[in-house]
Amino acid sequence: MLSKNEIALCIEFAYKVTEIRRESYSQRNKKVSYEKMINDCFIGKLAELVVYYHLREQRLAVTYPDFTIDSNDYSSDLICKTVNGKRNIHVKVCRHDSEIKESWLLEEKEIEKLTENCFFALCVFYSIEDIRILKIIHHANIPFKNPIYNLPTKKAIYLADIV
After folding, report:
1. CATH code where residue 91 lies
2. Phi (first) and psi of residue 137, to 5 degrees
3. Residues 46, 131 contacting (CB under 8 angstroms)
4. What is the DSSP code string of 36-75?
5. Which of 40, 31, 19, 53 is nearest to 104 (CA)?
6. Based on the structure, what is the number of domains in the chain?
7. Domain range enclosing 60
8. pLDDT tens, position by position, 14-30
9. CB–CB of 14/49 below 8 Å?
10. Which residues in the chain belong to E strands, given as ranges?
11. pTM for the full predicted model
């Protein structure tokens, strides 16, 4: 369970990052409202915390989510040190009530920057108290596809396509 302080940090972060990056977010998707941008950033940061605590429960050394706003949109969200080396974890979250279930969107540019040690943590948001990690998977095992809707700069991950 996340603390009230952590939830407040996520809210504050979502407002700040959306205000700073509002123009670039709007260019990526002109139909998205300001409120949706804030909400997406908020649940994304919550999911990072959930993945962080999950990895800690597994007794793995992992960095705490970063609440600073930098210019690198495509850097990993968490860095986990294992006996096999460093793993860059990219946390993706979708809403349980999304029109297309268990799917995650990402920018094509993000895929281009993936390295051998990149993994994705695929999560589903039900509520602030209920964010589920469905899978943590190496990027090479993900068939990135064109989204069902025409989104030229995006690729999609569909859980049903992951074996």
Report:
1. 3.40.1350.10
2. -140, 145
3. yes
4. HHHHHHHHHHHHHHHHHHHHHHTT-EEPPPP-S--S-TTS
5. 40
6. 1
7. 4-161
8. 999 988 877 666 555 55
9. no
10. 61-62, 78-82, 85-95, 103-107, 118-127, 130-138, 154-158
11. 0.90
